[in-house]
Write a structure and sequence with these properties.
This protein is of the alpha/beta class. It contains 14 helices and 14 strands. Helix content is 38%, strand content 29%. Strand 1 and strand 2 form a beta hairpin. The radius of gyration is 24 Å and the shape is elongated. Bound molecules: adenosine-5'-triphosphate (ATP) and magnesium ion (MG).
């Protein structure tokens, strides 16, 4: 795989009158050609600021941006303009030109390129077909729904056949069905046209259905990064875990358990566990193993299996009846099989609700 975008120790600091805001702090990322790279984080984490650095809408205070092996800090104005033509950008708000119709909006980025008039026309028609807006060529943005406007924004971002497409919350204003349709469209652009996609979102579900890699941002920093499978199967920070839990029902299950005395007691005795496993591990009869190898009885309280990048990923909540030394052995044994076991602390959960 070839690295297409490399961010090295990027800082972005905004100096305002009375305060200094460190929007991005020491972020290093590698995005490969063909990646669909998700960036998640809560509002204010620094996501938009970070991606704006990629096409120089934002100059970094420190660090290097390397695109296709070239350091863009050294680019002339002309080179920056050319770079921007090669990077499609879908803005957090659609940013369409209201006085121009759909055709004219999509045509606009081609102005000043050496594409012939006939070619441009052809390209616009092709893009309108691609995003499913045939028949709406002469409509104005005000005559379109939110989802349709977003399709225009995507078509416009693709006008110059970019190698890279950056999408800043392209679906956050849309209903679930339209969101799915737009995600399918982005997926096709990624898979069929081979366009590298950098996608900002605060919804982990969006990342799960589209991306192959993800970075989690918090307060200007990337706190976790990796393939979707790595991150979903073994999240290293609580923040990442919280994001992942919005995409499965584990959190709901834990909340339900926290309202029942029997489970709160179990968790106080440290016998309630969350068990995570991926891929092959699902073929191992874990529960039977625990009994045969350690004489420990495990009782499944909740179970959820889903597929991520075609790999099964399991989440179980189990009660294990075993003494402390045995539990330690069990943990080590499971870790070797890539099964992660963690205590569930329901007292925290129940006290949180009060
Ligand atoms: N031009 C600016 N001047 C001063 N501060 C800024 C500027 N742009 C962003 N910031 C600050 O940088 C931080 C990160 O903002 P950013 O827009 O990158 O967050 P975000 O993760 O995209 O959030 P959201 O999910 O709400 O879009 C915020 O605290 C914001 O106030
Ligand atoms: Mg933003």
């Amino acid at each position: 795989m070839m690295t297409q975008i490399s961010l090295e120790h990027i800082d972005v600091t905004f100096n305002q009158k009375h305060q200094v805001s460190k929007a991005v702090q020491d972020v290093s990322l590698n995005i490969e050609k063909g990646d669909a790279y998700g960036i998640v984080g809560y509002s204010g984490a620094g996501k938009s600021t970070l991606v704006r650095v990629i096409n120089r809408l934002q100059k970094p205070s420190a660090g290097k941006v390397i695109i296709d092996n070239k350091d863009i800090n050294k680019f002339s104005r002309y080179q920056i303009r050319r770079l921007r033509k090669n990077i499609g950008f879908i803005f957090q708000h659609f940013n369409l030109m209201n006085a121009r119709n759909i055709e004219e909006n999509i045509l606009y980025p081609m102005v000043g390129t050496n594409t012939s008039k006939a070619k441009r026309k052809q390209r616009v028609q092709h893009l309108i077909d691609l995003v499913g807006l045939k028949g709406k060529e002469k409509f104005y943005p005000a005559q379109l729904s939110g989802g349709q406007k977003q399709r225009v924004a995507i078509a416009r971002a693709l006008a110059n056949n970019p190698q890279i497409l950056i999408s800043d919350e392209a679906t956050s204003a849309l209903d679930p069905k339209t969101t799915q349709a737009i995600l399918q469209l982005l997926k096709r652009i990624n898979k069929e046209l081979g366009v590298t996609i950098v996608l900002i979102t605060h919804e982990m579900d969006v990342v799960k259905s589209l991306c192959n890699k993800v970075a989690v941002m918090d307060a200007g920093k990337v706190v976790e990064e990796g393939s979707i499978l790595e991150v979903f199967s073994n999240p290293k920070t609580q923040l990442t875990q919280d994001f992942i839990d919005t995409t499965n029902n584990v959190k709901g299950a834990i909340e339900t358990l926290a309202s029942q005395k029997r489970f709160v007691d179990l968790s106080r005795e440290q016998r309630l566990f969350r068990l995570h496993y991926i891929g092959k591990s699902t073929e191992n009869p874990i529960i039977i193993d625990l009994y045969q190898k350690f004489g420990a009885v495990a009782n499944i309280i909740y179970g959820n299996i889903e597929f991520i990048s075609d790999v099964p990923l399991g989440n179980l909540i189990i009660e294990i009846d075993a003494d402390k030394p045995t539990l330690k052995e069990i943990k080590e044994y499971l870790a070797k099989k890539d099964v992660h076991l963690r205590n569930i602390n329901l007292q925290d959960e129940s006290s949180k609700e009060e």
